[in-house]
Amino acid sequence: MTSTEPSASSNVIRNIIIEDIATNKYNRKLMTRFPPEPNGYLHIGHAKSICLNFGLAAELGGVCNLRFDDTNPGKEDIEYVMSIQEDVRWLGFDWEDHLYYASDYFEMLYDYAVQLIRLDKAYVCSLSADEIREYRGTLTLPGKDSPYRNRPISESLDLFARMRGGEFPDGTHVLRAKIDMASPNVVMRDPTIYRIRHASHHRTGDKWCIYPMYDFTHCLSDSIEGITHSICTLEFENNRPLYDWFLDELHVPCHPQQIEFARMNLTHTVLSKRKLIELVENKYVSGWDDPRMPTISGFRRRGYTPESIRNFCERIGVARRDSTVDMALLEHCVREDLNNRAPRVMAVLRPLRVIIDNYPENQVEMLDALYHPDDPQMGSRNLPFTKILYIEADDFMENPPKKFFRLSPGREVRLRYAYFIRCESVIKDNKTGEILELHCTYDPQTKGGGAPDGRKVKATLHWVSAEHAITANVRLYNHLFSQPDPDGAKDGSDFKTFLNPHSLELLTDCRLEPGLAGAAPASRFQFERLGYFSVDPIDSSEMQIVFNRIVTLKDEWAKLCNK
Ligand code: ATP
Ligand code: MG
Questions:
Q1: Is the terminal CB of the chain with fewer CB neighbours within 10 Å at N or C?
Q2: What is the reported pLDDT for 213?
């Protein structure tokens, strides 16, 4: 399903929280958390969760913790911990001193596990992983009790202590909750809560060789921190009884409420860390922050604003059913934001040389040009106009079809902020037929863009002075995947088959108005008639400025809505 209507902040979770505050259900301050696993960079789906958790806490007088759910040594890394913090901050949220790590609770979690064994609610199971799977049953068949299920409490306590002590190799024993092997909910069939992993952890080093599983860690971390509302995605709905079971059985500080919402999916991309890692590791993209990536760092590098991403997350609302949001809506949001704040400048991406035959040699006129037509506050700059200019190659056609109103032989057009020019002749390469330059004349009476005799032209073109323009590299980005749903091929094709071969087009001979020479890294502009662009903060140097296209001016979203 592709949703085309933004469900204007239909936020069921907000309503639940408002109700709980009104009835003082928890008798403590609203507390949410954002719990990323540091095993990859954050993507736009995470942004949705960040906006929900941090946004609701800020709006409703609560606190939101940033908690790293770091219980999987091997896949996790400090690089990811750092990038996640940078991304959350960039999005505009602040955890103040509420930064936590599940790994900081390892000692407490261990004690809780011992408590469960003592309560006869957990046991050490010595079946192999395959056997455990076999005993678990299926959706339609009940599971079978493990032969170790009724092992004496003292024996489980002893084995669990020795598991921690490092006596056993990986996979020989696990600690399992003692719940119900016949439960219709497979999650409740004596789930594993600890396993042996002789692996170094990025924070606890070699201190531990047993690690707690997600379901056990998560509810207890929430309780330890005093979370009131534990917001997660729908795939954890089946795990909610287990979340509640641990908290009911154990003596814990409090019992937070788990609330689920639908994962966000976006067209023309994938939002699974595993797949994104695959793209990075196999160099389909230049890195996690490749401007084509759906990661927060990718969007940032491309030139997206945090405001536009927050606005997007607000507009899509909170769904209880899985849905896919059209990328066109995200693009619409950034366009809307940049329309107000990006100065307009002129840049010629594919230059075609124009010589104004009747313009005085060596004359330079400085023409006043507004940075924003609707916002005089942004001010203006002077653009040099000279005899030799560049215009966009595709603004000229020698043999124009009916609907082409731009420049062609004998036709007159306006140059933005300057004069009317008329094309008099075309110079071509004798051998290849390639158009080399145009000879034009200008009408001195039309300075500023209007003709005293009232004659009209049908097009206004952007241009730069050949002598004054700076040269730049410009990268035009398109969808990373050509298919709207690269994950959903009917024939089961791998998502990488749908990578768009034209997702990046590099232009190396672009000519920009001279004022852009010192443009700050990451600053954003509208290149008139072309789109919004920003200075790549990494690849730009004093020698060579590099611009990324953030988004074109064509609003596909408006078109979809009008249909
Ligand atoms: P992935 O499946 O991509 O690896 P994950 O859910 O395992 O993602 P976590 O680091 O555990 O990644 O996610 C942190 C939080 O972000 C979780 O609470 C999760 O529910 C939320 N989240 C992750 N992906 C999405 C998404 N596509 N839409 C909304 N929330 C998401
Ligand atoms: Mg997860």
A1: C
A2: 98
- 427 near 437, Cβ under 8 Å? yes
Q: Which residues contact 309 (CB under 8 A, 6 or more apart)?
A: 44, 47, 91, 296, 299, 330, 333, 334
Cα 458 from Cα 406, distance rounded (Å): 7
For 441-465, the pLDDT digits (tens) are 999 999 999 999 999 999 999 999 9
**395 phi and psi, to 5 degrees?**
-90, 5
b/e burial code for range 261-276 (CB count within 10 A of at least 16 → b): bebbbbbbbbbebebb
Confidence of residue 10 (pLDDT cuts 50, 70, 90): low
* Structural contact between residues 88 and 121, judged by C-beta atoms closer than 8 angstroms: no
- Give the pLDDT of residue 147: 98
The rounded distance, in Å, linking the Cα atoms of 515 and 346 is 10
Q: Ligand 1 within 6 A of 323 CB?
A: no
Mean pLDDT computed over every residue of the chain: 95
Q: Which ligand is nearest to the CA of 37?
A: 1
Question: How do strand 63-68 and strand 99-101 relate by DSSP bridges?
Answer: parallel
How many Cβ atoms sit within 10 Å of the Cβ of residue 558?
Answer: 12
439 CA from centroid of ligand 2 (Å): 63
CA 317 – ligand 2 centroid, Å: 21
CA-nearest of 80, 75, 174 to 127 is 174
Annotated catalytic residue 144: no
Integer Cα distance of 400 and 404 in angstroms: 6
Q: Say which amino acid occupies 55.
A: G
Q: Above 60 in pLDDT, residue 76?
A: yes
Is the Cβ atom of 232 under 6 angstroms away from ligand 1? yes
Q: Is the CB of 49 under 6 A from ligand 1?
A: yes
Ligand 1 contact, 302 CB (< 6 A):
no
**Distances in Å between the alpha carbon of 548 and those of 304, 333, 521, 524, 537?**
10, 18, 11, 9, 10
User: Is 37 among the catalytic positions?
Assistant: yes
**Which ligand has the nearest atom to the CA of 46?**
1
Pair of tokens at residue 107: 């000692």
- CA neighbours within 13 Å on the CB side: how many for 12? 9
263 is catalytic: yes
**Ligand number with the minimum distance to the CA of 261:** 1
Q: What is the pLDDT of residues 303-340, one digit of tens each?
A: 999 999 999 999 999 988 888 999 999 999 999 999 99
CA distance 488 to 397: 42
Question: 350 — phi, psi (to 5°)?
Answer: -125, 90
